[in-house]
Amino acid sequence: MTNMKASICLSTFNKARPLERTLASIFVQTPPFECEVIVCDDGSTDDTRSVCRNFPVEYHYLDRPGYCNPAAARNVAYRAARGEVIICQSDDVIHTLPDTIERLVGDLRTGRFLIATVVNVDEAGRPFSDPHGKGWGDALVRYTGPDNKRPLFFLGSLYRHDLYSIGGYDEEFIHPGYDDDWFAACLVNGRGLWAEYSADIIGHHQHHPHTEQYDEIALSRALFERKMTEGLWRASGGVWNYYEEVVPGVGVQPPGKTKEF
Q1: Which domain CATH number covers 140?
Q2: Which of 196, 152, 155, 198 has its CA nearest to residue 178?
Q3: N or C: which end of the chain has fewer CB within 10 A?
């Protein structure tokens, strides 16, 4: 085992510039404990790998064509994690506050998982228009938070033993979307955790809608709804054992060493 306190885990696909800003917002912080950042690249064809070389991250690459649901990529990062606390987040969510990591770890309580407030914002700090055409225009949209209690990990934290108890993400979700919804449902209904929402921990989401994937998202939603109806919550005996090491050969050698912040 290790004294690693927290592992920040994210998957990414062809978002080199947003990822660069996200990583920059992470590495300017100085939490008072050991922390690591693990990035699993879900087959990017842009310069994502070069971006990761500029930061001391542990980098894994999945060689598969096109954009898939990131469930498998997330699991690669989670399997490699050594921290007591896992910080789960999107690759395009910027940490707004200089103590975001410290708060995500320090405010987490036993029997809970913690969800930050995440708002939409563009590169200039202006809210994005609603990608689904609901008439919000340039209104500020809160994806998660105390006033929109969606238990989704745009930015949040949970104990590693809770994540591992349900076997990570369900890789049956091969189409974009809804793997996060099912993951949260298993934590709540299978593991018996409570979702806690923080108004004080804030992330800015550099939103890039994938409107061309609506048909695929519908397939993922249908799978989620079927699983919810069946109520077969994943609670134990998941896809790996808690102390199992990351599978050899899954990714390329990391371009930078994980280090204490």
Answers
A1: 3.90.550.10
A2: 152
A3: N
DSSP state of 55: T
Rg (CA), the chain: 17
Give how many domains the chain has, as a whole number.
Answer: 1
- Distance between CA atoms of 108 and 136, rounded to whole angstroms? 33
Residues whose CB is less than 8 angstroms from the CB of residue 258 and which lie 6 or more positions away in sequence, other chains included: 36, 37, 38, 56, 57, 58
Q: What is the pTM of this model?
A: 0.85
- CA end-to-end span of the chain, whole Å? 20
H or E stretch covering 112? strand 112-120
Assigned domain for 41 exists:
yes
Tokens 């409570």 correspond to: 194
Low-confidence spans in the chain with pLDDT less than 50: 1, 133-137, 236-261
Q: Which helix (H) or strand (E) holds 181?
A: helix 179-185
Q: What's the pLDDT at 134?
A: 47
Q: What's the Cα-to-Cα distance from 38 to each of 175, 206, 255, rounded to whole Å?
A: 23, 20, 12
Would you call 126 helix, strand, or coil by DSSP?
coil
One-letter amino acid at 171 equals E
Residue 202 is part of which domain span? 6-230
Domain annotation covers residue 241: no
Read off the pLDDT of residues 128-163 as tens digits, 9 standing for 90 and up. Answer: 555 554 444 455 678 899 999 999 999 999 999 999
The one-letter amino acid at 166: I
Q: What is the pLDDT of residue 123?
A: 54
Single out the residue of 181, 189, 187, 175 nearest to residue 143, CA to CA. 181
Q: Are 166 and 190 in contact (CB under 8 A)?
A: yes
